[in-house]
Please model this.
Amino acid sequence: MGIATFPAASGGGGIKSVQRGSAASAGNVTITAVDIAKSFVTVFGTASSGTVAATGAVGGPTGTTSATNGDLLGRNAGYNTGFVNEGAINRVMGSVNNPSSNVTLNAVNITGGTNNLVAAIVQGFLANSTTLTVSGACRYEVVEFA
Model:
């Protein structure tokens, strides 16, 4: 936690001192003594809170399978049909003709909740003449009037 004091050169009234610094986290900051009745604090939060989550959908891929054509071969075990003794030969037992077809796969959703990212709201106050208490990471300014 850093601190800087700037005494004012004014003679009567006006600003007596300005102290600026930063706090890395919530806690107490030691400052040069000020008159609480004549001082005020300004705090600027330097952090954020919340989450950012993705929500959406991914479309399913589509495509086409190619046609399958061909012959089924079988081996004749050698039998006599009554006309010709065919013996043991390979012969076409039938043919295959599967036409092409379309393929569509299911879509997949991406979900992750809601987006609720916000700048952190940090507060600070003078606990006593030498202690500034802050609620989180911040930059601060303590101004004391004459």
